[in-house]
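This is your field. Please look over both lines of this record.
***
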Amino acid sequence: ERLMKEWTSPVYAFFNPTPRIVEINGRRAHEFKCDARGCKTTIQRFLDKKDARSTGNMRKHVKSCWGDAALTAADDAKDAKEVQTKIVTGILRDGSITESFERKGKGKVTYAHRQHTRTETRSELVRWVSESLRPFEIVKDRAFQSLMKTGRPEYYIPSPTTVARDVKLVFARTCQRIAKMLQVSFFAITIYHTNPTHKEYDGKMNFTTDGWTSMNHHAFVAFSVHLEHQGVPLSFPLDIIEVATVWK
């Protein structure tokens, strides 16, 4: 327990908080078990070495098991507790499918030197089929399977059903996030005595509408909102409805 108080590095959040004390060839060591689902890897750290508090091997495993994004997010966190509650819990809950959809900068596209983890593969597939309007069944396509598995036949490709479920999950989470940003905060109503002007998003929002008639003579109206979030301009389509009656 005395040593555990000194383990403040965020990387500890990815392992069981209470390591086993084992003896290997007469030497005592702490054995940390990875908390990822299905992972049985343990990291031993010998107590008689000068680098008994080193987290190098733990970081290497987190990078390969949880992914670069998780390790980078952990490094940016305040402490291991924040990593545990906000990052690790989210990944274990839903596979962190929504994590990969944080808006990224417009710099040069770079590629990792390792293949995607299962979670990262599912995230990339959700983005691909959504942005490029691909059918879910494309993951069963012969050419696609050949491109993905040649040289690495064990590479994980989810089923069309899994891809469809992940797309629906990301869509639902995105809708919730946008709704929370735009709606009046219930907390604010309670604390500020029904002040309807206090919203989750404190900046200015601009709403636009656009109407058109389709080729089969059906009239539609779309509603969108435009705002600036953390210096980035965003536009969200809110709804599209068919106009029942057109007045001329």
Remarks:
- Residues 115 and 155 are 9 Å apart (CA to CA).
- The longest helix spans residues 160-182.
- The helical segments are 56-65, 68-76, 80-94, 118-131, 142-149, 160-182, 186-191.
- The first strand starts at residue 20 and ends at 24.
